Here is the input.
Amino acid sequence: MKITTENTFGSGMTDEDWFNLGKSDVWAGKPKVPPEQDSQAASMYELGYCEGEIKSPPTESSQYPTAIPRHDTTDS
Here is the structure.
């Protein structure tokens, strides 16, 4: 079961939103700017930012292809 908690300052963003924002900021090359008024949201942002530094964004292509295309050489 996935539990998502709302932050205490009512910004409308969940902990998961702050976490994802941290990851997307690092992937976009933005400086780390956690929210100052909400320590819980700041912690989630920091966690996301750190994870984003470790993992590459999903839009980056991998170094190795996932499938090798086959070329059919038989004539019909």
